[in-house]
């Protein structure tokens, strides 16, 4: 998965918030059928299928008119789920103490993948502890990140 561009997010966010939802994030991925634009939405009481369908209908119309995405894609709208994706510094900060899985665009300390507790977030950096070593990771360099959810 690759984070959606700021241009795409700027088109999507007003639609999502205008319908009463929080835009958690947006990313592009490759599937068997081509490119998928995955939009994550949330609200305090949780997300139902009807919510996803309503947002999908609105976004399809707006994205077609705006023509922001030049290639063919499949639009998918969903809740963040148990393994909640993280896109922004406030989202990372809200998950301090949680187990996270992070993939960077470029290696830091010889590695691109990190899995461990998120111990701090400050000034655009997320600090993840792996095997007793603290890694300060620039949030802007993160390709993909999510909490490791636990079902109880």
UniProtKB/TrEMBL annotation:
It holds the Pfam family DUF150_C. Residues 86-147 form the Ribosome maturation factor RimP C-terminal domain. Transmembrane segments: none annotated. It is found in: Cytoplasm. InterPro entries: Ribosome_maturation_RimP, RimP_C, RimP_C_sf, RimP_N, RimP_N_sf. GO terms for cellular component: cytosol. Residues 12-83 form the Ribosome maturation factor RimP N-terminal domain. Keywords: Cytoplasm, Ribosome biogenesis. Coiled coil: none annotated. One of its GO terms (biological process) is translation. Required for maturation of 30S ribosomal subunits. Belongs to the RimP family. This is Ribosome maturation factor RimP. The gene is rimP.
